[in-house]
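Budget justification, computational time. The allocation requested in the original proposal was used primarily to generate structure tokens for proteins on the priority list. As evidence of use, we reproduce two of the resulting records. The first is shown immediately below.
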Amino acid sequence: MKTLGIFGNSGFAREVGDIACDLGYKLVYVARDQPELDVWAFPDEAVLESEINRYRDMQFVIGIGENAVRQKIAQRFAGNLRFANLIHPSATFGQRQQKVVEAQQGVIVCAGVRFTNNIQVGNFSIFNLNATIGHDVMVEDFVNVAPGACISGNVHLGARCWVGTGAVVNQGNGSSKLQIGADTIVGSGSVVVRDCEPNAVYVGIPARRLK
């Protein structure tokens, strides 16, 4: 049985562990420090990040939803660890789309996710339960698409943006994709009908900039 290391020990890390178990992996969770390790109360093995060199022959994923933290871990271990993609068996893909995802690293695709086709997928992006990604979407690195979010066709999700649970991003067009700026948060249940600027928070129906 292959062993997979999972950075993090929160609820999302354990959800990532569920995907890995469905794919036949044995799990080792990676805690940031001793206090984090001390509160680990689950049967799978957990180790300190400082001990990671003992496990360099394994593959890893980052089971941490916060985009900036995920990026820091990926950068810290770039070139030293191998990062896998995790794709739940119930996820579905349009023509040739799964190969596009598999060519990246650190991507997590949860149960019920649907990709259509001609989608560019960034490294270390997360597509949570039952999210939908439409045609001709561009997803940059470290993006998080929360459960039940719907990304329509011809949308550009900037690096480290977060699309909240149940949010809808309406369709752009082939000559001008609808833009969700880098580091922007789209609130849960919001409906985006126009471009969202970088480093901002948008909420509501239709979504308006909150800050």
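The second record produced under the same allocation is shown here.
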Amino acid sequence: MYQFIETICYEHGLFRRLDLHNERCNRTRLHFFGLQPDIRIELHLAIPPPLINETVKCTLTYGIDILSIEYVAYKIRPLNSLQIVVDDTINYAFKYADRSGLTKLLEKRGQDDDILIVKNGLLTDISYANIIYLYKNKWYSQQNPLLFGTRLQHYLKEGRITPALLTPEDLPKFTEARIINAMISIEESPVIPVNAIHF
């Protein structure tokens, strides 16, 4: 039985981007399990009282139904450098609970903090986030990431990020890179110098 996850950010007393999480969850369930009554994630969320004033990472595991929800106080971890790894077969179009393919690639990071995956000649994602690049005060993301994160979708709808087909050869034109995911905004992201992305 396939299992999937949604990582939901709770901050300042609110669960963020629930519309996009519901949409992705139910689209995934339809694809793998056929027509099912929609899940409304918000009906299943309840922050434990000790975490009520924290930024919390809520990890919801589901198949046809919700299987578990975990709540953990969240801090952004340091990220200073990336190792480019190539894998033309990796598939993470759905947010699988099984991350073994990504974990195996992560073992190739060497002395760097994380990896930047190249698939079919295109820059995609790091192991746990989408990545964006700054050029002349404008942010760009890969048009075809491994996974369309909910925050990336949100920024694309707002017009804050422009999608493009990006290759490793494009990296020198950018002044910096940052990561975004459910828990990390553009403003909160560690700044990654382009010369700290290693081939």
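A brief technical remark on that second record: The chain is about 15% helix and 30% strand.
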